[in-house]
Amino acid sequence: MAKTLRTSGDYTIKAGSGAAGTHQIDLDSKTVRVRGDLIIDGDTTTVNTANLSVEDTFIELARNNSGELLDAGLYVNRGTAGNNALFYWDESEDNFIVGTTTNDAGTSPITNIALANIKVATTPTDNNHAASKSYVDSTVVAAAGMTSFDITADTGSAQTVVDSNIITFVGGGNISTAVSATDTITINLDQNLTSVNSITSATGQNLTLAGDTGLVVVNNILTFASTASDPAGTPTYTKIYHKTIGGGDSGIYFKNPSGTVGELISKKKATALAIALG
User: Fold this and answer.
1) Would you say 97 and 90 are in contact if contact means Cβ atoms under 8 Å apart?
2) pLDDT digits (tens, 9 = 90+) for 180-230
3) Is 156 helix (H, G, I), strand (E, B) or coil?
4) What DSSP string runs through 58-81?
5) In the chain, what are the domain boundaries?
6) Second label for 4, Cα 20 to 30 Å away, from 39, 95, 236, 277?
């Protein structure tokens, strides 16, 4: 029969010596309902149920944290399947982290974590959505036309392009690179380069400009930086340079493969010599 026990004050039930003892209190019933707030003071709360249903819209973890470096999140006991899984906030990194760990559920901060993969929808619908590998791969291929493109990591910090694939950098300069041999990339320009202010060769190396017809055309002013002396040695080709103006009145000098050094003569100087020599 139904029975109600009502007291005018606090009501305490103790089994043996209480929390410090070895006794327990069993409530053996189909349903136990607490109609007020439930406060549990202890080290561990264990729920042996098949399903846990919580009405609250938010679950607060680390409630009494006063600003310490504590990690908090969901801990999944995987039994014998492998290291236990975690989805948690890492306080030291200010990031959410997904992974597996050998730490137990009472460890915080986490001292051992192996990052794990997380699946997201194939196609994101918002700029702030996480993108799947499938989406990124298909988007990059569609945008850059890299249908025959592969890069594999080398043993060092360099990258190796393999299988004679073509890497194309799409842009105003139309620069394309093609693999012709192991660790060799040839760069071709499909159009004229514009708005280029400087081209510098590697230290100790020549800068070669070669035209398809054998000519290099300068459509504006060609400027020579001044040098204090003639080039050393005998060149294998004629060198043109600028230094202090001499008898030729131009300051433009040459040194040819025979070692001859001379100054190009100006029109004004040539006219004066022609008059003087009759």
Assistant:
1) yes
2) 555 555 556 656 777 778 888 888 888 888 887 888 888 889 888 899 999
3) coil
4) ----STT--S----EEEEE--GGG
5) 149-189, 216-278
6) 39
